[in-house]
Amino acid sequence: MITLISPPDLSAQEYLDWEVQQEARYEYEYGEIIAMTGGKLDNNEIALNLIVLIRNHLRGKGCRVLGGDAKLMTIPSNVYYFPDLVVSCDLRDREAREYLQYPCLIAEILSPATESRDRGIKLSNYLKINTLQEYLLIHSDSPTIDLYRRSDRAHIWEYLTISSSNLAESDPEVPLTSINLNLPLSLIYENIDFIDEL
After folding, report:
1. Which of 22, 86, 95, 161 is 20 to 30 A from 6 via CA?
2. SS3 per residue for the chain
């Protein structure tokens, strides 16, 4: 869930100084401060599954795999987000202490409260990151992932949907070319029970 915080109207540096002193997480978008509140347990489970799978794959390869408490600057001095997962294999991020700037992969777990932002303004801002190769939108109510991937042609993004109506019968893989990994959908959704809607 998100909540727009009215004043104080802080500059980016004032936000950075203020935010690290807060107990809760706050995103920053063009001068506006947005409070991030807790999500459902399934969202957390999916994020943890993804982090563990990717971290194990990238162990020893010099990449950083971080979760929802890691801040990411998407547009210099204007936008700071806390994605559910961010991967950076860029040497410039190895020594970062406050926020990452050069991700190759970002994932957001969709919820009713955040989906419009994740598909709207966040998508727009994430796709402006020069180093970003893939952006995942992971549904928490069905085994479905929307994948945006940078194509070989400059400024062109491809869109794929990977889904299964029954993971026991069909287990498609999510091809993460940015980190050279194909992930079975069932592993991303491990321990998630989907309730059939009538």
Report:
1. 86
2. CEEEECCCCCCHHHHHHHHCCCCCEEEEECCEEEEECCCCHHHHHHHHHHHHHHHHHHCCCCCEEEECCCCEEEECCCEEECCCEEEECCHHHCCCCCCECCCCEEEEECCCCCHHHHHCHHHHHHCCCCCCCEEEEECCCCCEEEEEEECCCCCCEEEEEEECCCCCCCCCEEEECCCCEEEEHHHHCCCCCCCCCC
Identify the CATH number of the domain in which residue 111 sits: 3.90.1570.10
Q: What is the pLDDT of residues 115-165, one digit of tens each?
A: 999 999 999 999 999 999 999 999 999 999 999 999 987 689 999 999 998
Q: Is the pLDDT of residue 73 over 80?
A: yes
Range of the domain at 156: 38-188
In-domain check, residue 175: yes
pLDDT of residue 105: 98
Q: What is the pTM of this model?
A: 0.92
Note whether residue 116 is domain-resident: yes
CA atoms within 13 A on the CB side of 40: 13
- Provide the pLDDT for residue 85: 97
